[in-house]
Amino acid sequence: DFAVEKCVGTAEFAFGVSGSVTDVVTRATQGTLDDALLPKQADFDLAISGKYLDENDAEKSYNGSWMSLEAYYTEDVKLNKGTYTATITAGNPAEEGVGKPYFVGELKDFTVKANTTQTYTITASLANSCFTFAVTDWMLNYYKDIKLTIHTATNSFLFEPTSTVASDLYFVAADQVLSISGTAVKVQNNADVEFTKTAIGVKDAEGNVVNKTLAAQHRYAIVVDNSAVGGGFLTVKFDDTFTDVEALEVELNPDIE
């Protein structure tokens, strides 16, 4: 490696965390995650990649990674003068559920100068998405023994609500569509009902219902209600639009001819 002392420098980093999220209810507003969900500096991994010129003026690539900023400093890393990108991550992007936020911060194209120590600040923000789940009083009055499942591409989360209190915050990968399915019993006649698995959608600018892709750094409030028009459907509120979910009565003892 071309690491002549006069041609290397040091990069120091200060990590910051933004708990800012876009709250999606009836319109987008800015909110903040609870402090308990925010990672500490020791929770972050650090990766640095970049380009530099060797002693023959040939361009070389650099890639390094450390489990923590402390490990980076312990190694006393020296970088050849050049241009680099630093990325910090906290959490696991493949994990979904309560208490599973994933934070990413990136500093692009910072320069390392020979015989110089420079300090850079990297701020991480939420890279996955999250939602709460709740039902209305009308839903609870119409059905009992409610079991509703929210499906992601890789996981399913079961909710058995007995009140209108919203669930804990569930973190899920961004850029995917949620679906809902479930069962319940009608209070009026004790009939078992199955709710067909349905993608949760919204309306586009033209008013057409389209499946909604979850956005990173967004917090959604999913609210399930019983249809006010003749029953037979659930209404899932997701931002300012609604998705109808068909409710099918289950015939437990069909007549056999």
- Rg: 25 Å
Question: Which structural category do the helix and sheet elements fall into?
Answer: mainly beta
Strand content: over 45%
Q: What's the overall geometry?
A: elongated
Order of helices and strands, N to C? Answer: EEEEEHEEEEEEHEEEEEEEEEE
Q: What would your notes on this structure say?
A:
The protein is 5% helix and 54% strand. The strands form three sheets. Strands 2, 3, 8, 11, 12, 13, 14, 15, 16, 19, 20 and 21 form a twelve-stranded mixed beta sheet that branches. Strand 4 (45-53) and strand 5 (59-66) form a beta hairpin. The protein is mainly β and 257 residues long. The protein contains two helices and 21 strands. The longest helix is centred in the first third of the chain and has 6 residues, at 69-74. The radius of gyration is 25 Å and the shape is elongated.
Topology:
Layout: E1 8-17, E2 20-24, E3 28-32, E4 45-53, E5 59-66, H1 69-74, E6 79-80, E7 82-90, E8 97-98, E9 103-112, E10 117-126, E11 129-135, H2 137-142, E12 143-151, E13 156-159, E14 170-172, E15 179-186, E16 192-199, E17 201-203, E18 209-211, E19 218-226, E20 233-238, E21 241-249
Name the descriptors.
257 residues; mainly beta; 5% helix; disordered N terminus
Would you kindly provide a brief summary of this structure?
This protein has helices at residues 69-74, 137-142, and strands spanning 8-17, 20-24, 28-32, 45-53, 59-66, 79-80, 82-90, 97-98, 103-112, 117-126, 129-135, 143-151, 156-159, 170-172, 179-186, 192-199, 201-203, 209-211, 218-226, 233-238, 241-249. By secondary structure, the chain is mainly β. The strands form three sheets. Strands 2, 3, 8, 11, 12, 13, 14, 15, 16, 19, 20 and 21 form a twelve-stranded mixed sheet that branches. A seven-stranded mixed sheet has the order 5-4-7-9-10-1-6. Strands 17-18 form a two-stranded antiparallel sheet.
